[in-house]
Amino acid sequence: MSEYGLEAVLNPSEMFLTEHDSDSEILAGLAVAVALDGSRSFAVEVQALCVSGSRTRGQVVGIPSSRADVIISILMKQAGLKLQDSVIFLNVVSGFNLTETAGDLAIAASICSSFLEFPIPNDIAFIGEIGLGGELRTVPRMDKRVIAIAKLGYRNCVVPKASENLLKPLNLDIKILPCSNLKEFINTVFRPEG
């Protein structure tokens, strides 16, 4: 809504992403999920802050707290992250409610990024559900999500290995990074360059 009436929103994902200047420092704890709302795909930024030794209680905004608790528990059990001594704050930018499991991988990536103090390059998106055994599971309409994120200029997309064959025929200008489980995902995204 503007002063002249209703106007079309050409790129709704812009509302859910932090502005990054090309020469700005990339911050730890930020990851991009691809969510569906009806028939539209949105790039949505998930933020995490892990603070060790704090006496405050963590907060979760825009993610069901029960889902956040499950993902944190899986990261501790299946990926071996020592999160029990950290207070974790989670937030989805611009008040978007990320209720579908397709955002699990982005939530895990933001937590790992903050905990490990390892910034994620801002050209990577994450799509996938995390199972209780740490396995990565495909979600509905993977192709539509990857096409949407490629159109937004993302160069890499981490997805469950099970969806790799579905995405190969798309022939998009985006590198698909398939992972089977959380350990493989952490080794793919959070390995030092060089």
From TrEMBL:
GO terms for biological process: recombinational repair. InterPro entries: Ribosomal_Su5_D2-typ_SF, Ribsml_uS5_D2-typ_fold_subgr. PANTHER family: DNA REPAIR PROTEIN RADA, DNA REPAIR PROTEIN RADA-LIKE PROTEIN. This is Lon proteolytic domain-containing protein. It comes from Brachypodium distachyon (Purple false brome).
